[in-house]
Write a structure and sequence with these properties.
It is a single chain. By secondary structure, the chain is of the alpha+beta class. It is about 25% helix and about 45% strand. It has helices spanning about 1-35, 95-120, 120-145; strands at about 35-40, 45, 50-60, 60-65, 70-75, 85, 90-95, 150-155, 160-165, 170, 180, 185-195, 200-210, 215-220, 225-230, 235-240, 250, 255-265, 270-275, 280, 285-295, 300-310, 310-315, 315-320, 330-335, 340-345. The strands form five sheets. Strands 3, 12, 13, 14, 15, 16, 17 and 18 form an eight-stranded antiparallel beta sheet that branches. A six-stranded mixed beta sheet has the order 20-21-22-26-1-25, with no helix packed on it. The radius of gyration is 41 Å and the shape is elongated. The relative contact order is 0.19.
């Protein structure tokens, strides 16, 4: 009898073991059929973005060549866009024409002096003095130019911005003949973009410079940027002075420049990885939040669909004012998810 009871007990134990084994296998099969997910804890934070805008580089200081009298350019030694050094010959004026202009100015000065002596009205006399002094200054410039054999030289190290004359043409007084940018005299960059209500943290650009021997590429950060909004075009226009550097600028005047702007948002309650956010056909955004529930065989993981409002975003994160403190959000799944669906958590 005892032996028979032992056989029954053993058989029962075996059946229980088989049931447990079957339950375990069934659970594993069930769990492996569930979507396998990865989650992350959501924290507050900021989003960061960069914008690129097209700008124009300009030198601030220039040498502008003109004469207070009419003149003829006999020879041009440079071309537009050419790099020039300080003391380099730029152009030569016709000597004979300069000498005739000098005589003409001297005669006009003598005439003005006589009129000054004869004029009794103080106001008219002041005008005559003013005209005479201007002509005396012009004569002084002509005399210096004639001493240099009619040749004008570059006063700076830079680049020829513009040439507005031709050889052999009589040019009127005070006409701008040649403009030369001074690469040591500072520069500025202007650019614009459509208004987006964004205040940028900083702006920077890649500019070419030289140490006198080697060509270099420097990242220039603009400290002071002027910002002006145009209501008609709905654009914001920026201007920034290029900071001084030990290296000399070697950019071309009027050269296009790419300006990069760096933006950092306010702190948002929730910063969600881009991979965690899904979108409805109408553009509404949502995420899946991990939850747990009691089952007969223990704790089961499942997901809840939660709608969110996208406040801002960058390459990696989407910011929202929805609070997910102490929540775990699904960032990856090997299957499509549905609201309240059971899932298997990747540990």
């Amino acid at each position: 009898m005892k032996r028979k009871n032992g056989i029954y007990a053993g058989a029962l134990a075996g059946i229980i073991l088989l049931l447990l084994l079957f339950t375990y296998v069934s659970m594993q099969v069930y769990r492996h059929s569930l979507p396998l997910i990865e989650t992350e804890n959501i924290q507050p934070g900021t989003v960061k973005r960069t914008y690129t805008m097209n700008g124009v580089f300009r030198y601030v200081s220039t040498q502008e060549i003109s004469l207070p009298v009419s003149a003829i350019v006999a020879e041009l030694y440079v071309e537009t866009g050419e790099t020039v050094g300080e003391g380099m010959a730029i152009l030569k004026f016709d000597i004979e024409y300069l000498e005739m202009e000098l005589i003409r100015q001297e005669l006009e000065i003598e005439e003005l002096k006589e009129r000054e002596e004869q004029e009794t009205e103080e106001r008219k006399q002041k005008l005559l003095v003013y005209d005479r002094e201007r002509k005396e200054e012009a004569v002084k410039n002509l005399e210096e130019l004639l001493e240099a054999e009619g040749i004008l030289y570059a006063l700076c190290q830079g680049e020829v911005r513009a040439i507005n004359t031709k050889e052999g043409v009589v040019e009127p007084a005070d006409k701008l003949l040649v403009s030369i940018c001074d690469r040591k005299g500072g520069a500025e960059i202007t650019w614009g973009m459509e208004e987006e209500g964004i205040l940028f943290e900083r702006f920077y650009a890649e500019l070419r410079t030289t140490d006198g021997h080697n060509s270099l590429s420097d990242t220039i950060v603009f400290e002071n940027v002027d910002r002006n909004y145009d209501v008609k075009t709905n654009k914001v226009y920026y201007k920034a002075v290029v900071p001084e550097s030990k290296n000399m600028l070697s950019m071309h005047d009027g050269e296009p420049v790419t300006v990069t702007a760096y933006y950092v948002s306010e702190v948002y309650p929730s910063l969600i990885p881009v991979s965690a956010v899904r979108f409805e056909s109408d553009g509404a955004a949502y995420v899946y939040e991990l939850k747990t529930r009691e089952k007969s065989f223990g704790i089961e993981y499942y997901v809840r669909k939660q709608s969110i409002y996208v406040s801002d975003r960058d390459t990696n994160y989407i910011a929202t004012t929805s609070t997910f403190k102490d929540s775990q959000i699904v960032v990856n799944s090997n299957q499509a998810l549905n609201d309240r669906a059971a899932v298997w958590l990747e540990e």
